[in-house]
Amino acid sequence: MAEEIFSLESILEKNLQGRELDEVKRILYGSGFSALDLPQAASQEATELDFELKGYKISAQAEETRPPRVVRIGLVQNKIQLPTNAPIVDQREALHQRISQITKVAADCGVNIICYQEAWNMPFAFCTREKFPWCQFAESAEDGPASKLCCQLAERYNMVIASPILERDSLHGDTIFNTTVVISNHGKVIGKTRKNHIPRVGAFNESTYYMEGDTGHRVFETDFGKCRK
């Protein structure tokens, strides 16, 4: 059996070094970033919980009339926690527990705004054609289980949360959307934005699951800056 690949970055660092590695990273990621020294306790907790923790500093061009400020942004790429044939509620609860653990570690690193991955509240099933059982994970953007959890986490850790979920709009015929819910660091839902572009490439047709968004490209005012998703 082939050796498991941990990450693209691990392959690069294993096979390249020095200026050659720096140039490849510049091509892939752009210039102007450097690794951050993260709190030892947070790194230890991430290791114990079996997820990778990385931090980078990205500088912006200095302005003449405003002082610089630091905004710490966390990006999450999670994975399923239970087999996809487990009961829906059990899968959902396992994902909630996992995202809560990750968010706590992010808070320990001083993150101000955290963005979860697309449809984090379910297995990413959109490469299939079956609506059942996947659409059972759809929920209200305003007061569904995911948003209720995120409101609690946002207030607890003083953190803005961008929470992409599969949304069921019960006010409009149970229409389903691919939606990002934005929650303030005060634990309140600020608003939502729905995915506009729906991929339709061969058998990969996400319109099987949800409709094109109808919210436009919204910008949300937060205590840490303007957010657009």
Architecture overview:
The chain is an alpha+beta fold and 229 residues long. The chain has five helices and eleven strands, in the order ααβαββαβαβββββββ. It has helices spanning 8-15, 18-29, 40-49, 88-108, 145-157, and strands at 33-35, 56-58, 73-75, 113-115, 160-169, 175-183, 189-194, 200-201, 204-205, 219-222, 225-228. The strands form four sheets. It has a five-stranded mixed beta sheet. The protein has a two-stranded antiparallel ribbon with strand order 1-2. The protein has a two-stranded antiparallel ribbon with strand order 8-9. β8 (200-201) and β9 form a beta hairpin. α4 packs parallel to α5 (145-157). The longest helix is centred in the middle third of the chain and has 21 residues, at 88-108. The chain is globular, with a radius of gyration of 19 Å. The N and C termini lie far apart (40 Å). The model has no long low-confidence stretch (mean pLDDT 91).
